[in-house]
Amino acid sequence: MSNSSTYSVFPDSKNHYEILDGLRGVAALMVIVFHLFETFSGGNHFTQIINHGYLAVDFFFVLSGFVIGYAYDDRWGKMTPGEFFKRRLIRLHPMILAAMVTGAVGYYFSASPVLFPQISTTPVWELLLIMVIGMTLLPVPPSLDIRGWAEMHPLNGPAWSLFFEYVANLLYGLIFRRFPVWLLSVFVAFFGLALIRFAVFGPNGDVIGGWSLDPVQFQVGLIRLLYPFFAGLLLSRIVKPGRLRHAFLWCSAAVILIFSIPRIGDADTLWMNGLYDSLAIIFLFPLIVWLGASGKPESPLQEKIIRFLGDISYPVYILHYPLIYIFTAWVVDNQVPMEAAWPQALAVFFGSVGLAWIVLKFYDLPVRKWLASKFLNRAH
């Protein structure tokens, strides 16, 4: 989302919540940092630095629900579900195609005898098949798991959350848009209880998961989707933004802090971290979204920063992980310690931002502009 007219989910007649655009960008950059540090964790969530970056997905869902409700709730008398789905496809899908191409291009560069031994024997036809399936955003079956990490999109792991974003849009466009506030509140309360049950009383003490096609992981993905997205939708209907000075700075600091805080508790007190995750998703993220909607950019420089962060937020998130695969394989194969890998880590970070900007400017924006001119009724 951006406050520029070319990259906005908001109708032309509506004001923009510019701060929310910028916060999405801040969260997307924190996802890169989280994945870079994850490379050195050895899968140990108890010691990883920037420990709660996985909560960015849940934050994105809250943002999406809020923005969808604000942008579309009052337009259904003039807009059909088909028109809504076309708008969402045009907004999201061109970048998904680019993400799968990026993943395919980087696939063989991430070959590793330790992490990804099957890459060297994957035939090109199978890689291309996975890429084409990924372009539809349909999950790849386990028989085509060519990376070995049990991802529903093995060329670009984070695409799993876009799959669930599409599920949320379908549910909203077909069912939940019709719900009055009281009924939506009942469902949100039920989804919140399901989230608490899984995070606090579940086997892992967190909400990590959702990227695999197996029934357990698919359930995790639904749990992570249903409360935050529809809580954001409910928030857009029941509260009005206030006025908050320095909203972008305060909310950005809160997002960074929530994502960075160390793991809570230990292997014998998993519920403590699950409680933290629940509190962040159920209370803190909606609060941050409301506070962010209550502020405005306070200088021309801040407005430019927010616009840039909003513009790159989605492409950074969906394009960075092929570089993470390559970086992780290099670190593991060469046993590179964290203190020696910082130049390459910075290269991945800024390379992800640069790649996102290039793909946005020279592919995504022109393609979406053309698609909108061909397929959208501007009267809606």
Features:
single chain, 380 residues, mainly alpha, 12 helices
| Biggest β-sheet description | none
Low-confidence stretches: 1-13
**Helicity level:** 55-70%
Instruction: Please state the CA-atom Rg, rounded to the nearest Å.
Output: 20 Å
- What amount of the residues lies in strands? under 5%
Shape: globular
- Give the total of domains: 1
Total beta strand runs: 0
Written as H for each helix and E for each strand, in order along the chain, the element string is HHHHHHHHHHHH
Mean pLDDT, all residues: 94
Total number of helical segments?
Answer: 12
Structural category: mainly alpha
Q: How far apart lie the N and C ends?
A: 19 Å
Q: How would you describe the overall organization of this protein?
A:
This protein is an all-alpha fold. The chain has one domain (5-372). Helices cover 64% and strands 0% of the residues. The protein has twelve helices and no strands. The chain has helices spanning 18-38, 56-72, 81-107, 124-136, 159-174, 181-201, 215-238, 247-260, 270-293, 300-319, 321-334, 342-375. The longest helix has 34 residues, at 342-375.
